[in-house]
Amino acid sequence: MATFLYKLGRLSFRRRHFVALIWVALLTLAGVGAASAPAAGNSSFSIPGTEAQKAFDLLEQRFPGASADGATARVVFKAPSGEKMTDPGNKATVQEAVKELADGSEVARVTDPYQAKAVSKDGTIAYAQVSYKVSGMELEDSSRDALQDSAQDARKSGLTVEIGGDALQTVPHTGSSEIIGIAVAAVVLVITFGSLVAAGLPLLTALIGVGIGVSAITALASVLDLGSTTSTLAMMIGLAVGIDYALFIVSRYRAELAEGRDREEAAGRATGTAGSAVVFAGLTVVIALVGLSVVNIPMLTKMGIAAAGTVAIAVLIALTMIPALLGYAGRRVKPMGEKGKRFGRASKNPSKEPSNKPERPNLGTRWASFVVRRPIAVLLLGVIGLGAAAVPASSLELGLPDDGSQPTSTTQRRAYDLLSEGFGPGFNGPLMVVVDAKGSDDPKAAFTQVGDEIKGLKDVVTVTPPAPNKAGDTATITVIPGSQPSSVTTENLVHGIRDAGAGIKADTDANVLVTGSTAMNIDVSEKLNDALIPYLVLVVGLAFLLLIVVFRSILVPLKAALGFLLSVMAALGAVVAVFQWGWLSDLMGVEQTGPVMSMMPIFMVGVVFGLAMDYEVFLVTRMREAYVHGEKPSQAIVTGFRHGARVVTAAAVIMMAVFAGFIGSSESMVKMIGFGLAIAVFFDAFIVRMAIVPAVLALLGRKAWWLPRWLDRALPNVDVEGEGLRPDSGRGDTDRELVRA
Question: If 192 and its partner were Cys, which of 12, 599, 650, 651 is the partner (CB 3.0–4.6 Å)?
Answer without folding.
Answer: 650
